[in-house]
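INTERNAL AUDIT FORM
Audit reference: QA-55
Scope: verify that the stored structure record matches its stored sequence.
Auditor: D.O.
Record contents follow.
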Amino acid sequence: MTISILILKYAMCYCAFFAMLLLSKPNGGYKLFDKNGPAQNTGALFGSQIAGIVWLGLVPVFTFDQSWIDIVFGIEIPDFFPVVIIILLLIAVSLFARIQSENRFGEIVSNQKTVKIFSRDFILRYILLRLLFLCAYEIFLRGYLLTDSIHYLGITKAVLLNIALYTLLHLPADKKEIIACIPFGALLCLVCIWFQVVWPAILLHVSLSLVYEINLLKKFHRSINAVL
């Protein structure tokens, strides 16, 4: 595959997903929770997750040369010390996500916005889609893209490009989240380079996202049930 075709494929996948994100923001479906409360348009929310699964997961898997299995798992069993580091990072990321969910809950409550309760079926469907989306997201960004970028640009430029593109995808989010993308994106790139596989980034990103969102769901349901 020539470099021009490779760039075109990456640009097509990235831009298609980015366009879907921009469309979901004004329609109230960019995220499960923002500063104003839970998503008001669950259809748009599901649409953005499915778009990510398609454009960042399915399209690259079937059109790029590298095997997604090798990208995710590699061919070697990791040593004990790196695994311990990942476990410690998972604990740290989970604690950070919990603290941030507490802060977000306070912001939403202080805004006195109307809050709705999501059904159990919706939550289960969302978590499943979210897991698939985050896997596709990391396989694309920290797998295919980072690997090819390192090959053509070297590690430093590849990491900087990856962080920039990752941060750009959070443009519809608030300022705090955009800034947080820089150190977190760097962390995900570094662990993938260290392990030469993507599963550590998937675990870290899933932990951050689901701990944050599930804790917020619990707090909202508890607060509403207490009122009732």
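Auditor finding: record pair retrieved intact. The CA atoms of residues 149 and 158 lie 5 Å apart.
Action required: none
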